[in-house]
Design brief:
The chain is built from ten helices and 18 strands. The chain is an alpha+beta fold. It folds into two domains: 169 residues, no CATH class; 100 residues, no CATH class. One of its GO terms (biological process) is SOS response. Keywords: DNA damage, SOS response. GO terms for molecular function: ATP binding; ATP hydrolysis activity.
Length: 381
């Protein structure tokens, strides 16, 4: 489980260290940095897939993503990291080196940042004795079984060692960390408009993990019914829409969702459902997955939900914490309150963090000194 998330010089997050627990609720007013925190987590996940540099380039390059507030010196690097019970990881992005040399052609990829430092370590705090893999520029050293170091040269500045050097023989710990990061799952504003993929009939195959666009909703719900917790699915639907149940029709291999509601003479298809009803069913499919991830991050799942659905959604989130660490990013006070009330009923601890912005910088509300922050050390360049 992740215990600490650290971000430096990413958008409004000039220097932010956040403690995490099994169930985490991130709140704050609009513009306080909640979305930046969510995107920082996604960038860490992209690092595990070798796509962090590409993701930053899509944001306009490092210069667009860097902290731009008032400071003694202009920010020139962006650092992301996390630490947990088993592993920690930190990555330091900087500006690319200018093309030099006689006859050297200027590069067209100047929006691509370079990875200047990258480290993994055992346990929750970076210390020299806990280092497992240590990268400085193109050189990487990995800890061997006898406590020594194996050194590798030539890793490219835009490649992560998580994608390039995760070898079961050479760096088994790096491989385990990579697979841990790759198991993280994110859901952010899944479409429910009239043309949303979730409203159309689709070829159905076993789907233990709901896709990010929700196109495979019917297959995901049927997979829960066959190999997951069908009773929990039925209970979640009845809890939100009393007397209702979901069924999936197989029309020559194409799966179609049907919602049977009390008082109606026929079931409703996905194309007929309200945005809120469809969104709730999408969250039910995501949170009741038969293949739970190590970390599940939800960004403003309350969008388009009727207030009456917030308490059933909170119960779904609490159910998911049995197998998964949850980070819920929300600006809806009623949802945060519903999660807190449900947690008290289920005797689950909630780690609540409210973000505020002061002088353009995101901070944690109520934090008065460095002593209130989790212990964290960045690798030095």
């Amino acid at each position: 489980m992740i215990r600490t998330l650290a971000v430096e010089n990413y958008r409004s997050l000039r220097k932010l260290t956040v403690p995490l627990d099994r169930l985490n609720v991130i709140t704050g007013a609009n513009g306080t940095g909640k979305s930046s925190l969510y995107r920082a987590l996604r960038l860490l996940a992209d690092a595990g897939r070798g796509g962090a540099v590409t993701a930053l380039a899509r944001e306009g390059g490092l210069q667009s993503a860097l902290w731009a507030g008032k400071a003694k010196a202009e920010a020139t690097s962006m650092r992301l990291g996390f630490a947990g019970d088993e592993f920690g990881y930190a990555v330091d992005f900087g500006h690319p080196m200018p093309t030099s040399g006689v006859g050297a052609a200027p590069s067209l990829f100047n929006l691509d940042p370079e990875i200047k430092r990258e480290c993994t370590w055992a346990g929750p705090v970076l210390r020299p004795a806990t280092l497992l893999c240590d990268r400085a520029g193109p050189a990487v050293r990995t800890r061997t079984a006898d406590g020594g170091w194996h050194r590798t040269q030539g890793i490219r500045p835009y490649d992560s060692m998580l994608s390039e050097l995760a070898d079961p023989q050479l760096a088994p710990d790096l491989l385990r960390l990579r697979e841990l990061i790759r198991s993280w799952r994110f859901y952010d504003h899944v479409r429910t408009d009239a043309d949303a993929p979730a409203r159309a009939a689709r070829i159905g195959t076993r789907t233990p993990v709901l896709g990010h666009d929700g196109a495979d909703l019917a297959a995901a719900l049927q997979t829960i019914r066959e190999i997951g917790d069908a009773d929990a699915l039925d209970a979640a639907v009845d809890d939100a829409f009393p007397g209702s149940r979901v069924r999936i029709l197989d029309n020559s291999g194409r799966f179609e969702l049907r919602l049977h509601q009390a008082g109606l003479t026929r079931p409703l298809g996905a194309a007929e459902l309200s945005d809120g009803t469809l969104r709730y069913l999408l969250w039910a499919a995501a949170l009741l997955t038969p293949r739970p991830p190590s970390l599940l991050v939800l960004n403003e799942p309350e969008t388009s939900l009727h207030p009456d659905l917030l308490r059933p959604l909170a119960d779904l989130i609490l159910t998911a914490t049995k197998d998964t660490q949850i980070v819920l990013v929300t600006h809806a006070g009623p949802l945060a309150e519903a999660v807190a009330k449900g947690a008290r009923r289920h005797r689950v601890d909630v780690n609540s963090t409210e973000l505020v912005k002061q002088s353009g910088e995101t901070t944690v509300a109520g934090r008065e000194s460095l002593l209130d922050e989790p212990l964290w050390y960045w690798p030095k360049r």
